[in-house]
Amino acid sequence: MTNRQIVLERLPQGEKLAAEHFALASGERPVAGDGEVLLRTRYISLDAANRAWMQGATYRSALNAGQVMAGGGLAEVIESHVEHLKPGDLVFADAGWQEYAALPGKNLRKLPDLKPETHLLSVYGVAGLTAYFGLLECGQPRPGDTVVVSAAAGSVGSVVGQIAKIKGCRVVGIAGGEAKGRWLVDELGFDAAVDYKSPEFKRQLRAAVPEGIDVYFDNTGGDVFEACLFAMRNHGRIACCGAVSQYDGSAPPHGPRGVPGLIVTKRLTLRGFVVMDFADQNDRALSDLQAWVSSGQLKVQEDIIEGLENLPAALIGLLAGENRGKRMVRI
Question: From 270's CA, which of 36, 39, 90, 180 has a CA 20 to 30 Å away?
């Protein structure tokens, strides 16, 4: 009755995340107490936020060396001591990088019976909901707007761009490499793509948005954020979702300069958010997302890797931009 786990062996200190920061461990399978459920993990979600948690407290507690690596995932109820969950139910749980976890049932809700079940982690999970609320509630796009999204080939960005197209916007994706750019345009329907790795990135961006940006969905921060900030139109809106360019390795030497005056003169709105802010509207979002997927307007891309032992490499690869769409690990 063992429980395989990935432990955060050592916190990165001003260095890029590497395999040696993790260790594979084996403990006893936990026992569910009163008011708890025993969960068996099926899939673990990989997100840039996993790396951000290693830098200190965010919207959750900071991670410490020696603990099971934190992370959410899709899990099956094996044993239940609460009325609203029974064995066989699926839940999304912050169970960590391990095969089994015992958690309080009051914080868990049964997920709908949707197929394939991996969509519960991607388009119908945190990634899809983040894209939906970040764009529509924070970005507030209007038909005809020019919408730019960074990390556009990732789990959130790829959905943001497609929703913007559904809403009648012109969409420009920023991603790494020509292959990803072609995929965004040819497969997902983006109007243009810009390669942030190119030495001509800023020139390419200006050419792609000759009249400026109405809505920028920021997943990266750093130089990409700065370039888009200075390309914003008057009364533009920026949805600040993440800063993956600044999570891994040493901190950048400086942030964007001249920002306060720019925000004032262009009357820009910058709004940070986390998906839990809109939890009371999840039913509406899921209804829209399901309708768009069923109609073919929204294509779902998933990147599934096998095996708990491959979690560290999978996260390192995600931070390096290996994935297209939602990356997860099947346990």
Answer: 180
DSSP H or E run through 235: strand 232-240
pLDDT at 242: 87
Q: How many CB atoms lie within 10 A of CB 330?
A: 15
Choose the weakest-confidence range: 57-71, 124-138, 221-235. 57-71
**Residue recorded with tokens 């959750």:** 60
Amino acid at 195: D
Residue ranges making up the domain that contains 194: 127-275
| Residue 29 burial (C-beta neighbours within 10 Å; 0-12, 13-18, 19+) | middle
Q: What is the pLDDT of residues 285-299, one digit of tens each?
A: 999 999 999 999 999
pTM for this structure? 0.92
3-state SS, one letter per residue, for 107-130? HCCCCCCCCCHHHHCCCCCHHHHH
Say how far apart CA 25 and CA 45 lie, in whole Å: 20
Supply 288's token pair.
């829209």
Q: Do residues 35 and 104 make contact, with C-beta atoms less than 8 angstroms apart?
A: yes
DSSP string for residues in 115-168: SSGGGGTTTTSHHHHHHHHIIIIII---TT-EEEEESTTBTTHHHHHHHHHHTT
Longest dimension (CA), the chain: 63
- Same domain? 27 vs 49: yes
Number of domains in the chain: 2
CA nearest to 308, candidates 148, 73, 89: 73
Whether residue 191 contacts residue 170, with contact meaning beta carbons closer than 8 Å, is answered with yes
Domain contains 287: no
